[in-house]
Amino acid sequence: MAWFQRQITLSAHARGFHLITRNIVDKLPELERVRIGLLHVFILHTSASLTINENADPDVPTDMETAFNRLVPEDVPYVHTMEGPDDMPAHVKATLAGSSLTVPVCDGRLVLGTWQGIYLCEHRNRAGSRKLILTLHGETEAR
């Protein structure tokens, strides 16, 4: 069994849902050595989140952003407002979507469904770069 861990930085993204599967795979060359295992992805921020969703139709990220904005509007009388009107809603959205994902690995590849991809959910209007911790654990030799 082997463990690999790496911190990666994603460039700043506009508010919305952004497919980052390729960013993760490209920055984790050890992935191809793992025959069976798990990849854990954790975001080091409280106003952005991670999710797995459909990666084929470009309307999905737009509709996800629309749905999140309806679920968590900015015009609620939040108490935490020092960082702007999008900050507290961003925290709520991040709590709803979550800060981590675990994806199975088989024969050097992420085991995602045909239409699945990993998304960065950026909930701030003017966010900066985002840091992820990638932790890969698994068998590096075929059985």
Strand order of the largest sheet: 1-8-3-5-6
Question: SSE order in H/E notation?
Answer: EEHEEHHEEEE
Helix-strand makeup class: alpha+beta
Average pLDDT value?
A: 97
Radius of gyration: 16 Å
The parts where pLDDT drops under 50 for at least 5 residues are none
Give the percentage of residues in beta strands.
35-45%
Euclidean distance between termini CA atoms: 12 Å
Description:
By secondary structure, the protein is α+β, with helices and mostly antiparallel strands. It has a single domain, classed as YjbQ-like (Jelly Rolls, Sandwich), CATH 2.60.120.460. The protein has three helices and eight strands. A five-stranded antiparallel sheet has the order 1-8-3-5-6. Strands 2-7-4 form a three-stranded antiparallel sheet. Strand 5 (100-106) and strand 6 form a beta hairpin. The chain starts with a strand and ends with a strand. The mean pLDDT is 97.
Key features of this structure:
143 residues; alpha+beta; Jelly Rolls; 5-stranded antiparallel sheet; 3-stranded antiparallel sheet; 3 helices; 8 strands; elongated
